[in-house]
Automatic annotation (TrEMBL), chain A:
Sorted UniProt keywords: Oxidoreductase, Thiamine pyrophosphate
InterPro entries recorded: THDP-binding, Transketo_C/PFOR_II, Transketolase-like_Pyr-bd, Transketolase_C
Name under which the protein is recorded: Unannotated protein
Cofactor(s) required for function per UniProt: thiamine diphosphate
NCBIfam families named in the record: PRK09212.1 (NF006667)
GO molecular function: oxidoreductase activity
Residues in Transketolase-like pyrimidine-binding domain copies: 5-180
Name of a matching Pfam family: Transket_pyr
UniProtKB/TrEMBL annotation, chain B:
Keyword Oxidoreductase: yes
Keywords: Oxidoreductase, Thiamine pyrophosphate
PANTHER family named among the record's database cross-references: PYRUVATE DEHYDROGENASE E1 COMPONENT SUBUNIT ALPHA, PYRUVATE DEHYDROGENASE E1 COMPONENT, ALPHA SUBUNIT BACTERIAL AND ORGANELLAR
Cofactor: thiamine diphosphate
Start and end residues of each Dehydrogenase E1 component domain: 16-310
Protein name: Unannotated protein
Annotated InterPro entries: DH_E1, PDH_E1_Alpha_Subunit, THDP-binding
Pfam family, one: E1_dh
One example of a Gene Ontology biological process annotation: pyruvate decarboxylation to acetyl-CoA
Amino acid sequence: MAELITYREAVAEGIARELRRDPSVVCIGEDIGAGEGVFKTTAGLFAEFGPTRIWDTPISEQAIVGAAMGAAMTGVRPIAEIMFSDFLACCWDFIANEMPKVRYMTGGQVSVPMVVRTANGGGLGFGAQHSQAVENWALTVPGLIVVAPSTPSDVIGLMASAVRSDDPVIFFEHKALFATKGEPAPAGHVVPLGKANVCREGTDITLVGLAWSMPIILEAAELLAAEGISAEVIDLRCLVPLDAACVLESVAKTSRIIIVEENPFQGGWGGTLASIVADEGFHDLDAPVKRLAGASVPAPFAKHLEDQVLPSVGATVDLARRLVGG
Amino acid sequence: MTNSTKEELASWYDQMLVIRGTEKAAYDLFMTGLVKGTTHLASGHEAVAVGASAALKPEDYVWATYRGHHHAMARGLSPEACLAELMSKETGACRGKGGSMHLTSAANNMMGSYAIIGSHIPMAVGSAWSAVLRKTDQVSIAFFGDGATNIGAFHEAINLAAVWKLPVIFICENNLYMEYTPISAVTAVQHPAADRAAAYSLPRIVIDGNDVLVVRDEVAKAVALARAGGGPSVIECLTYRHYGHSRADPAKYRPEGELEEWMMRDPLKVLRARLVESGVSEDEITGIENAVDAVVKEAIERAKDAPLSDISEAFTDVWADGGMQWRN
Ligand SMILES: Cc1ncc(C[n+]2csc(CCOP(=O)(O)OP(=O)(O)O)c2C)c(N)n1
Ligand SMILES: [Mg+2]
């Protein structure tokens, strides 16, 4: 068996593969060059590709994303890094008003083939302004592809699809997953956008997650199996395109669903998925559609407080038990 | 000032008249209800667009604001495609999905008109960066208003362009006003763009934006510098908008006599005088004026006659595959 790699290494590897494959791919961001990124997710890139492919910028989120957009519209495929996803707010105009709208408002005259990568979510104790899970922000904007991988090989395979996409992609890398390990990706590995992964098959209940919530629900499924409850586990991988069909197919089999999400319940992505299941899966359901989401509070600093506001393995198991037993 | 041929002067006069006439038509069509929403007319700013454009090659990039009819037309958008867009027609530049504020002519590398103040300034830096990456000698221009100089994106963009020595020119159309507030009332320097240039180690350049020749010459210098790898320039053009900010604005806040004073320096008057000076006869000039009248009239009729864009347009062009599907 090949040696396992970390999620962190997979980010750099995924970018490197695209930089090698296509000379029009470039990286732009703060401290990503010789500094190799504050999360070391660009390790080795500057050494291999140098300053004509890896561009260090001032602390100018608007200029980073805006310049990447102008370059994307004129023949380049930029990968822009926004250090922490909380900082997307500093360039939100570009994310919400520019990248996703310009194709439409010009009647299809231009394309914006670019990726904005960003470190998302909690788990590292960085406090309220460096820990929020904001994938739901991106989901609210028609015209953005939203990707959030949970394993190293998915990071590489989805990075390939993201960079090759002719549409703008927000690529959420999860801080709490950087140190996790998984199988390496074979050469040429590409995971299509909008294809969920059924990580574990089951018949009694469907557990749906994304990025950070995947280790939680996989562990929950394991514990439930020990009690004789068979959980099907789905990793959405992308919020847009959303593989709703995969979820509906699963619910047709299990009749029950829990959506486990890190972002706040208030406006969280699970609400969109729940509305689809409640509507189109209504006749398959034997129990209400359930969401376990982050509490609707800013991210607290202390670990014991964060544990209170994020969904847990225990809460997932308890809820599944009640739904299946009830 | 460099010399320009009679032919050049005449062609600029022609272009500026077409823009003026098309915008007048837009105004009139608004009054008759054929143009909806809002329009921001650039009448009075024509010399900036035409002068700058005269210093560019066709493959150079131009980025504009919601007040961008003149820039789109100076780069080659037809008056018909402009008016048809304002009237939501199938033959409009963006097939009715952009409107006055988002005129775009990508075929002419006129990369769009943006209505979030300052947003396109970093994009112009991006197309300049792209030219460096692709090793072309294309230059990019961002046109923006005086008001845009107080937004963060302006400063982030110029700093980045200066640090990376990118071939981009930042052209401020200083028309003295934001929407209704004089720029001087909210800005700590006298020249909102030019006085900030020093902060990015760039020279202070303020010019008469109502003289097409002055604009052409100054932009040509900046273009030459940019193509030679000398980096960006900031050029502040002093000009004036003849109408109010938008269709909703009667411009009552302007001090008495100000408009009249600027009308004496109407860029069309200035250029007409130059034409006469260079020996073009009254007859020839009237000939140009009549020809432009006919061109604009025909554009109005053709735009009016075109069908509204198809209702299916509402649901296309979200994604590269042309569609809008976000889930299966
Ligand atoms: C970010 C942002 N804030 C405010 C507005 C509303 N707004 C539209 S035009 C305008 C004035 C802009 O003035 P200036 O940059 O001088 O351009 P001009 O209209 O004079 O050409 C304002 C405030 C906007 N469109 N975008
Ligand atoms: Mg102004």
